[in-house]
Amino acid sequence: MNESNEKKGFSGYIAPLSSKGWPRWLVYLFSLFGLVYLLTPTLGIFEIIPDFIPIIGNIDEGAAALALWYGYLEIKKARNKNK
Description:
Radius of gyration: 16 Å
Structural class: mainly alpha
Strand content: under 5%
Helix content: 55-70%
Number of helices: 3
Largest sheet: none
Oligomer: single chain
């Protein structure tokens, strides 16, 4: 696999979702949900997928972290536009 193919595969995680047609407000909403979900100190009482299920138990936290990441990319893109 050459370097250009690797960059194409990774670019999906470093490009803001608004550049792919998503409304910015929706990306911010998902990002806010992800932040609240990750910071909720319920000790596993409120879980979309319970953590005690092997392997797939942490998928919900991973999705919340990914939503937070895309929100960060949107904010970064907005700040770069203002400069």
